[in-house]
Each structure stands twice: as C-alpha cells, then as structure tokens.
Design goal:
two-stranded parallel ribbon, histidine metabolism, single chain, EC 4.3.1.3, Fumarase C, Chain A, domain 2, Fumarase C, Chain B, domain 1
C-alpha cells in the first residue's frame, strides 16, 4: 500500500487525495518528530511560568481572560474538545473526514503547534487503522478553524464519541481504538486547542473538488464537441490562431481539446439540403471554449490558493522558531472560502451552457434535421424531453448554490469572533454542485451521442465513435423507442464520474489539456 510521509514543510495535493480517497498509510518523518519535540519543550516551559499564555494557561475565545491553574489544565483541554464537538445534521463523507484528519496532522507535524509527538502518532494510527470519526454537516463557521468537525475528530483520539470502523460500522470510538491496540490520548496544555484550530475541512474539500473538476472540465470539452458535431456545427471557431489573440490559457486548452476530438469528423460543417450554409453557430456551441476556459483559469487560481494553504501551519497561538508563542489570525478561512465560492460560480456556468446545448439538440426548430426530442416516433415517443427537465432542475439548483457563502458572516463567541468566513459552508455546497455538474454533463453526453447516431449516412470523428462505443459497453443504450430512462441516465452519470469519457477519447486524441 502507498505510504505518505508527513514532514515539517506541508504536503501536496496528491498526498491529500492518496490518504482521503486511496486509504494510503501515513508515516511521520524523523524531522517531524524532532520538530514536535522541540516545540513541546517550548510549551512546557511556558506552562511552568506564572504569566498567562493563551491556549496554555487561559480559557478560550471570549473566556480567554481567565487564568487556569496547573491542576485544571488537563481538564481544560478535555473540556474544549467535548464542548466544541457540537455538530449536528447528517454525517460528513468518509473521504472528507480522512482529509480533515490528515491535514490537521500535517499542521501538527510542522512543529508550530506544541503538540507532543505521541499525540501526532496517534492521529496517524487512527488513519492507518481506517477509523473515521463521525463528523456532522453543521458546526463550522470557517473561522477559528473548522471547530466542530475537528472537535469530533479530537474526541475520537480521546477514545470518546462515535467513529466508523474499517468495516463501515459506526461504534463507540473507545471500542475501535482498543480493538486496534491504540491508546487514547490524555491531552495536556495547548493540545486540545491545537487539534481544533485549522481550515483543514474546507481545504480538504477544496483539494478534492479540484481533482473532480479537472476531470469534469475535460469531459465538458468532449461533450461540447459531440454536441457541435451532432448539430453539424463548424470547427473553424476552434482554430488556435483565433484563441491566441485572446490569450487566456484555459480558453486555448479547451479549444484545442474540442478540435482534437473533432479531428476527422464527417459531420462538422455538413449542412442539410434545405438549409442555407450557417456562417456561425449559436453561442452555446461557438463560445464553449470561452466558458470552459474561464473555469479552467479559475481552477488555476484556486489550485494556487490550495497549494499555499497546504504549505501553511494554521493554528493559534503558534510556536515560532525563536521560541515565542504568539497569537494570530491565520485560522481565518477567507482565502479558501473565496475560491470555493468562485468554483461554484464557474461550475454553475459550465452546467448552464451544457444544458443549452442539450436543449438545442432536442428542439427540431434548432437542431438542423434531428427528430423532435431525438424521439424514435415523435408524438408516440417523447424521447429525451424529460431528461432535459431533469438537467434544467440540476442547473437551477447549481445557480442557487453559486450564491457566495463567504459574503456572509455571523458573530459568535460573545462578539470575540465577530467576523467569520463561512468557508465550510462554501465547501459543502461546492461538493453538491460538482455532483450536479457530473449529472448535467451525463445528460448532454446521452443526448449528443444519440443525436450523432441519428445522423444516418454521416461518419462521426474517430474520437466520437470511441466515446459512443465505450458508453454503449457501459450499458447506456442508444436510439430507439421510449423506455424507462432513469437507469440509462444513472449509468451515464457513473460513466462520467468514473472518468469514462476522457479514458475513451485520449487513446485517439492523445492526452487532453
């Protein structure tokens, strides 16, 4: 099994995906263990002094004015975890919790938090044992970190609360730890706070969203090309010289992808006998590279933010290399929240233009010779009429999900935490939006492939044929009389989600950008 080594200098996107989705093992480097020990010495020295230090010998948030004596500090750290594990609502997905735990471990291992090496090792042990704390949908405002979600993870480290075992069964965390020979941690000064105070949940979801969107943007280039082909559109607008004079990198990549898919098509530029030659196609076809390209460039910015955050040590207070322990505001999730919201906007627009192409394929007045709704016997058969309804409902929800969460703030902790990022909420709605985008593209794929097959006597591009053959092999049926449509659409959704579109095309086109 793949092993991810956690050091002091952050982590990578690939490592997050490997741990969250690939169940990679986690190992602490010698460098990280040394840094943990050094930082702990600093915290122990401060704990022995009479002067109050936030998180070490004081209360938290609005209660930071109270000095806590040595006899109550272990209780203080336990209490912050127990009281902050206040999440409600449905369980968060296993991959999100694993990303959350791994990214918190990454920050702990930086040597800037003051957590003891044995606590960090226990965090790694839980991941390696496949023990996943139960984390709930609601409880984070995205400032002072993802407090409630991280608290539920810290609670499991203490052997309390509930967790999912490697077999998928939810049981008391203490039982699961005992079964795997893991001793619950007894938290000391600052450790409870250090386990809760980070942007790890929203960051983990951002990293996974970027991985999903990279695949979906390539898929969208293919489905746009298939729709263009089915509509007998022109590929002249995809020529590189036209995109070079508006040098947005994503736009050039999207156009190049579409052009590669359409290479060798006998449908492109073919006009119906009763139609005048079209000088240009509708915007939803002609401007596909501009919309998909803008989304790609948005992703590039979001990836830059994610990489910076992956290199960060987010905690408050932090242990600095010179031995100082300083309060700060680095836990504020604004940088991550903004790009999460931006990606939701881009995803909604990509879905919107895909739905417009689908609608065009189904409308006999705009489809240039295709049967109404791509039906076998229109009137007796309704064809894909209601598939477009479903697609439209998905797009409409995505537009609602594109309303920024980060533009909101609600004061908390008796006005001590009077401005928050709502980054967790931005991440949660982006995950929903990505699932919807996958379905929207699946419907366009279903319609466009059927439409191409209905262009009798015309030969599609080799890449198009490869997609159609792969889709049919996956159990998604082609043209014919009306049938129970939901299973076909579900199979198309799975095909898109599993990367089937890109996998079918790239052996013909070469790697897509």
């Amino acid at each position: 099994m793949h092993t991810v080594v956690v050091g002091t200098s952050g982590t990578t996107v690939a490592d997050v995906i490997a741990v969250a989705r690939g169940n990679a093992r986690v190992e602490l480097s010698t460098e990280a263990l040394d840094a943990l020990a050094r930082a702990r010495e600093t915290v122990d020295a401060l704990a022995a002094k009479p002067e109050p230090v936030y998180g070490v010998s004081t209360g938290f948030g609005a209660l930071a004015t109270r000095h806590i004596g040595t006899e109550l500090r272990a209780q203080l750290q336990r209490n912050i975890v127990r009281s902050h594990a206040a999440g409600m609502g449905p369980r968060v997905e296993r991959e999100v919790v694993r990303a959350l735990m791994f990214l918190r471990l990454k920050t702990v291992a930086s040597g800037h938090t003051g957590v003891r090496p044995q606590v960090a090792q226990t965090m790694a042990d839980l991941l390696n044992a496949g023990i996943t704390p139960v984390v709930h949908e609601y409880g984070s405002l995205g400032c002072s970190g993802d407090l409630a979600p991280l608290s539920h993870c810290a609670l499991a480290l203490m052997g309390e609360g509930d967790a999912e075992g490697p077999d998928g069964t939810v049981r008391p965390a203490g039982e699961l730890l005992a079964e795997h020979g893991i001793a619950p941690v007894e938290l000391r000064e600052k450790e409870g706070l250090a386990l809760l105070n980070g942007t790890d949940g929203m960051l983990g979801m951002l990293v996974m969203a970027l991985a999903d969107l990279e695949k979906l943007y390539k898929t969208a280039d293919v489905t746009a090309a298939l729709s263009l082909e089915a509509l007998l559109g022109t590929d002249k607008v995809l020529r590189p010289e036209l995109h070079a004079i508006r040098p947005h990198p994503g736009q050039g990549d999207a156009a190049a992808n579409m052009l590669a898919v359409l290479e060798g098509s006998g449908l492109v530029g073919h006009f119906q006998a009763d139609e005048a030659p079209r000088v240009q196609d509708a915007y939803s076809v002609r401007c596909a590279p501009q919309v998909a390209g803008a989304g790609r460039d948005t992703m590039a910015h979001a990836r830059l933010v994610a990489e910076r955050e992956l290199a960060a040590a987010v905690d408050n207070p932090v242990v600095l290399p010179d031995g100082r322990v300083e309060s700060n505001g680095n836990f504020h999730g604004a940088p991550v929240a903004y790009v999460l919201d931006f990606l939701a906007v881009a995803a909604a627009d990509l879905a919107s233009i895909a739905e417009r192409r689908t609608d065009r394929l189904l409308d006999k007045n705009r489809s240039h010779g295709l049967p109404p709704f791509l039906a076998d016997d229109a009137g007796v058969d309704s064809g894909l009429m209601i598939a477009q309804y479903t697609q439209a409902a998905l797009v409409s929800e995505m537009k609602r999900l594109a309303v920024p969460a980060s533009a909101d703030s609600i004061p908390s902790s008796a006005m001590q935490e009077d401005h928050v990022s709502m980054g967790w909420s931005a991440a949660r709605k982006l995950r929903t939006a990505i699932g919807n985008l996958n379905r929207v593209l699946a419907v366009e794929l279903y319609a466009a492939t059927r439409a191409i097959e209905l262009r009798h006597g015309l030969t599609p591009a080799p890449a198009s044929r490869a997609v159609i053959e792969a889709l049919r092999a996956a159990g998604v049926r082609g043209p014919g009389p009306d049938r129970f449509l939901a299973p076909d659409l579900e199979a198309a959704d799975v095909f898109v989600r599993d990367g089937g579109v890109v996998a079918a095309v790239e052996p013909v086109t070469g790697p897509l950008a």
